[in-house]
């Protein structure tokens, strides 16, 4: 059986934390100087572990095992959200690397390839590294990609990093038996339940909408309330109606979010003539999403009968849930029961992950460890060393079992 080395796991994670350290977290946007340095350091660690590793033409890293037997693929991402946590992404990279090292050190004929997928956090676009690895990212997609904060083009960023002109590496479905990804939960279900390991059943679908309201811009002091067509108030009333209706029709893990509200013109003495909201639904059950979608359109239609403004709901995108492989879930269940008896549970992932793209071509699995306080995407994000070490052993055991199956 593979025996992970706790000190090695923790040392690697804490070293990665120094690349862009910010308070107790990190600030490591994709292709920032510290992100580039973290990628090069990771390549060095892979090579020290006996893997053949290079950064490709979009910033992905693939470390290939020399093992002659069956090969599992595992990994995650390195970059962070702005001024955010130190484990979101790197935990999965180091778990994959440690599983590769521990299985090799056990004398097994099987091995683990380690993949680091670029820009999962979306600084330049949506899952560009995963899409490139799965060979569904076009060159024109890269041409159009820009950093959402700085405006730098991805082409310029790749040139600055020294990656421009390199070939992009794609998945080899004949080589890999499956894909495992580890991650912090980014919620408090495990912590509140007293559990140590989450075995992910599915990664939720995300449906994105734009809600627009057209009213009449006018003077805030001279326009009486009876004749106003206030787009902002109409939007707020619709959002309140959504929040009242959805608990009646949603699933137990459904979530909905108004991510941004914009008023036009947005002046303190001007009645807004236009209003816009970016709205999002998440669930792992397509039927629940369809039900919520229908309700959203019905609520908008009802509002148009009573409001003086014109309201419109446009669905901008609708992904499908990614189901995790049952056999790999069972391998995680068994490994968790061995190291943490009775302290594991199956659960969906409410966040998107690289594994959802891997699952399109090969069997995929995800494992969660607890997030302290359920915090993520913030510099206070954390997981105890004890839980990190436990998770690393469960992860390596599960991969070895899956390779032997």
UniProtKB/TrEMBL annotation:
Residue sites binding Zn(2+) 1 per the record: 77, 88, 183
Residue sites binding Zn(2+) 2 per the record: 88, 121, 377
GO molecular function: hydrolase activity, acting on carbon-nitrogen (but not peptide) bonds, in linear amidines; metal ion binding
Domain Peptidase M20 dimerisation: 206-305
Enzyme class: hydrolase
Record's cofactor remark: Binds 2 Zn(2+) ions per subunit.
InterPro entries: Amidase_Cbmase, Bact_exopeptidase_dim_dom, Peptidase_M20, Peptidase_M20_dimer
EC number(s) recorded for this UniProt protein: 3.-.-.-
SUPFAM superfamilies given in the database record: Bacterial exopeptidase dimerisation domain, Zn-dependent exopeptidases
Cofactor(s) of this protein: Mn(2+); Zn(2+)
Keyword line: Hydrolase, Manganese, Metal-binding, Zinc
NCBIfam families xref list: hydantase
Record text on subunit structure and interactions: Homodimer.
Sequence similarity: Belongs to the peptidase M20 family.
Protein name per the record: Putative hydrolase
Natural source organism: Variibacter gotjawalensis
């Amino acid at each position: 059986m593979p025996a992970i080395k706790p000190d090695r796991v923790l040392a690697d994670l804490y070293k990665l934390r120094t690349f862009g350290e910010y308070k107790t977290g990190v600030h490591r946007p994709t292709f920032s100087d510290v992100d580039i340095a973290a990628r090069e350091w990771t390549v060095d660690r892979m090579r020290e572990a006996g893997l053949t590793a290079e950064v490709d033409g979009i910033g992905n890293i693939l470390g290939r095992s020399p093992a002659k037997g069956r090969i599992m693929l595992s990994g995650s991402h390195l970059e962070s959200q702005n001024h955010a946590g130190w484990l979101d992404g790197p935990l999965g990279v180091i778990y994959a690397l440690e599983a590769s090292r521990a299985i090799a050190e056990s004398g097994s004929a099987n091995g683990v390839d380690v993949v680091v997928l670029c820009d999962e956090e979306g600084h330049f676009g949506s899952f560009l590294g995963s899409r490139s690895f799965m060979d569904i990212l076009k060159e024109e997609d890269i041409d159009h990609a820009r950093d959402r904060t700085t405006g730098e083009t991805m082409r310029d960023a790749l040139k600055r990093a020294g990656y421009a002109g390199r070939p992009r590496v794609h998945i080899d479905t004949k080589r890999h038996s499956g894909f495992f990804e580890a991650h912090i939960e980014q919620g408090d279900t495990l912590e509140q339940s007293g559990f140590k390991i989450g075995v992910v059943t599915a990664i939720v679908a995300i449906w994105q909408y734009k809600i627009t309201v057209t009213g009449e811009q006018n003077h805030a002091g001279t326009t009486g309330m009876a004749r106003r067509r206030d787009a902002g108030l109409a939007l707020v009333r619709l959002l309140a109606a959504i929040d009242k209706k959805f608990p009646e029709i949603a699933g137990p893990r459904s979530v909905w979010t108004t991510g941004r509200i914009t008023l036009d013109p947005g002046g303190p003495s001007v009645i807004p003539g236009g209003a816009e909201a970016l709205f999002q639904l998440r669930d792992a059950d397509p039927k629940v999403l369809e039900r919520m979608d229908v309700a959203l359109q019905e609520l908008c239609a009802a509002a148009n009968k009573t409001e003086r403004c014109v309201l419109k709901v446009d669905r901008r995108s609708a992904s499908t849930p990614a189901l995790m492989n049952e056999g790999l879930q069972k391998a995680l269940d068994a490994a968790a029961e061995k190291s943490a008896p009775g302290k594991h549970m199956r659960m969906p992932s409410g966040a998107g992950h690289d594994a959802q793209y891997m699952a399109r071509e090969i069997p995929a699995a995800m494992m969660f460890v607890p997030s302290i306080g359920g915090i993520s995407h913030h510099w206070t994000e954390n997981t105890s060393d004890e839980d990190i070490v436990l998770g690393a052993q469960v992860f390596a055991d599960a991969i070895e079992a899956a390779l032997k199956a």
